[in-house]
Design brief:
This protein has 430 residues and is mainly alpha-helical. The protein has one domain. Helices cover 65% and strands 1% of the residues. The protein has a two-stranded antiparallel sheet. The longest helix has 28 residues.
């Protein structure tokens, strides 16, 4: 049995164990104890919600606040936490706590799930993930208690603050208010606390580890510099553009729209009422998503940055470089591959939904599919009205978006025993 497990590639094991956690979560969410009195949740919907939670998406075919009991919402929060920080890390932590040992295959699984190389210390990665997660979520909980305490008793305030802090930092976007944060869109504490939790969760644990290692020497890696600069550009640029394109929107809600489109799923304004320019901008920001090794999805900031710099350098006839470092060919190929596969998955899924839902508008379908693939969770309100076939399509899309298309494909790819060289020939492009 152990020999068989050793032959299984980390990527395939990662996808398989994700599916196991989702299935277990669906069973718990389908139990009567997880529902409010007089409410039932069909298993397909329970599986959809479980997938959305573990893949930290936030899409749901039901009103969570009106469907799940306290027990059900706790199950949901646990699934969000497992999906966000990586259930693999939690599993390894338990194994180490009980046996004090860590096998090479388990170590590779952790590194594969966070996209780090073999030189990274697993113990150090564990410390960074658990330390940063606890610090941000507790700080967010403390801040959210301030506005929530004005309307709810202490026990409910503490739970609401904890749930939404966990959901925000893990970029899940689930809420217990039925209309997300629309009722709180004038409260700066709620808007900025949730907004910055989303941003901090989307920066990635790789970045936090690098900052801790190099804060004294002020020698950050190229990865960290790219993530920080690209994130700042997207958040600030998005805020300015949303303020320009949405009539009457406040600066804080323009900031929040810019932050939440980066894979979170909370909303403080009605998404179905977005003007065309804001709709297109939201699609673009959702597609880009967060950064590698984070709680968010999308094609990632580093992929877009690498593709853009490569294209720009090619036009100028230069080698792609940034911060006095040349971008390696493997990174360039991977960036374009990720973007191409993402567009392919989104196109196929959108066509399938258009077939299954002929009465729905194309813009709403595309919005929903991009949101699912980028594990954002924003919706134009069509999720509860989807057919069973469409829900299955979105479940697959969310799963692929969270685990990673490359991870899934690489798990089935055969290792080449030898290479064959062919004559090169130019292809006419453009």
């Amino acid at each position: 049995m152990n020999e068989r497990r050793r032959k299984i590639r980390p990527g395939l094991m990662l996808a398989g164990e994700f599916l196991i956690i989702i299935s277990i979560g669906a069973v718990f969410l389908a139990l009567p104890v997880s529902h409010q009195e007089g409410v039932t949740l069909p298993f397909l919907d329970a599986f959809f919600v479980s997938t959305s939670a573990v893949c930290v998406t936030g899409l749901t075919p039901v009103d969570i606040s009106a469907t799940l009991s306290l027990f059900g919402s706790v199950v949901l929060m646990v699934l969000i936490q497992l999906g966000g920080v990586g259930y693999a890390i939690v599993a390894v932590f338990l194994i180490m706590a009980t046996t004090g040992k860590m096998h090479l295959m388990t170590s590779n699984l952790i590194k594969d799930s966070f996209g780090v190389d073999n030189r990274t210390s697993i113990r150090k990665l564990l410390a960074v993930v658990f330390g940063c997660t606890a610090a941000f979520e507790l700080a967010g909980m403390a801040l959210l208690c301030i506005p929530f305490s004005r309307e709810y008793p202490l026990p409910e305030t503490l739970y609401l603050a904890l749930f939404h802090s966990v959901s925000a930092f893990n970029n899940a976007g689930f809420d217990l208010f039925s209309t997300s944060l629309m009722r709180w869109n004038d409260d700066p504490v709620v808007i900025f606390t949730i907004g910055f939790l989303i941003i901090f969760g989307g920066l990635g644990f790789i970045l936090y580890g690098d900052i801790m290692d190099n804060i004294r020497r002020r020698m950050l890696t190229i990865h960290t510099k790219i993530v920080l600069s690209t994130t700042a550009l997207l958040v600030i640029g998005g805020m300015l553009l949303f303020h320009m394109t949405i009539d009457g929107i406040s600066w804080k809600n323009a900031f929040f729209q810019s932050a939440t489109t980066r894979t979170a799923g909370y909303f403080s304004i009605d998404q179905s009422a977005l003007p065309p320019a804001a709709y297109i901008l939201t699609i673009v920001l959702m597609f880009i998503g967060a950064s590698p090794g984070s709680t968010g999805g999308g094609v990632k900031t580093t992929s877009i940055f690498t593709a853009f710099m490569t294209s720009f350098s090619s036009i100028l006839g230069r080698k792609p470089a940034i911060f006095r470092r040349e971008i390696d060919r493997e990174s360039i190929m991977k960036a374009f591959f990720v973007i191409t596969l993402a567009l392919l998955v989104i196109s196929i899924a959108s066509m399938l939904l258009a077939v299954f839902e002929p009465d729905m508008e194309a813009d709403a379908i595309i919005y929903e599919v991009v949101s699912a693939f980028a594990t954002v969770g924003l919706t134009m309100g069509i999720t509860p009205h989807l057919s069973a076939a469409s829900k299955i399509v979105l479940i697959v899309v969310m799963f692929m978006g969270r685990v990673g298309v490359i991870t899934i494909l690489a798990s089935f790819a055969k290792t080449a025993s030898g290479s064959i060289s062919y004559l090169e020939e130019k292809i006419v492009i453009g």
